[in-house]
Amino acid sequence: MKLQFFAPCPRGLEALLVEDFVAAGAADATSVPGGVSGSGDWATIYRINLESRIATRVLCRLASADYRNEADIYRLAYEIDWAKHFAVERSIRVYVTAIRSPLKSLEFITLKVKDAVCDRFRADSGQRPNVNTKNPDVRIHLFLTDRSATLYLDTSGEPLYLRGHKLAKIGAPLKENLAAGILRLSGWTPEKPLLDPMCGSGTFLLEAAQIALDDAPGLSREPGEFGFERLASFDPGLWRHLQREAAERRREASTLAIFGSDSAADAVARSQQNLAHAGLDRLIRVERVDLLKRTAPTPSGVMVTNPPYGERLGTEDELAAFYPPLGDALKKNFPGWSCWLLSADTRLPKLLGLRVGRKIPLYNGPLECRLYNVDIVAGSAR
Question: What is the pTM of this model?
Answer without folding.
Answer: 0.94
